[in-house]
């Protein structure tokens, strides 16, 4: 009986540890940028973008390239503002063509 209790206690402890560590994974942002690509990127090389979480220390955009890479860029850079505007315009005009 003592052995069964010990095994049951070990299983409960393991489950508690797993539950706790799995819960910690969802706490922080998935991707933050600490260095930025300063080279201008052509709109032809970009297929999309996402904004990093507000919980990240540096505001940034992640550009997804046609090659499948992600580039961190500063949202305050003039060329980035222009690129995002172009991507937004492309997205809006693309959705209107389906009417």
TrEMBL record:
SMART domains: SCY. Its main location: secreted. GO terms for molecular function: chemokine activity. The keyword Secreted applies. It is found in: Secreted. Residues 29-87 form the Chemokine interleukin-8-like domain. One of its GO terms (cellular component) is extracellular space. This is Monocyte chemotactic protein 1B-like. It comes from Cyprinodon variegatus.
């Amino acid at each position: 009986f003592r052995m069964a209790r010990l095994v049951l206690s070990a299983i409960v402890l393991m489950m508690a540890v797993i539950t706790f560590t799995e819960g910690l994974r969802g706490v922080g942002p998935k991707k933050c940028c600490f260095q930025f690509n300063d080279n201008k990127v052509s709109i032809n090389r970009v297929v999309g973008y996402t904004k990093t979480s507000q919980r990240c220390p540096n505001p940034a955009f992640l550009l997804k390239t046609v090659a499948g890479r992600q580039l961190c860029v500063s949202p305050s850079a003039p060329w980035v503002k222009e690129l995002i505007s172009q991507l937004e315009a492309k997205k809006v005009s693309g959705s209107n063509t389906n009417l």
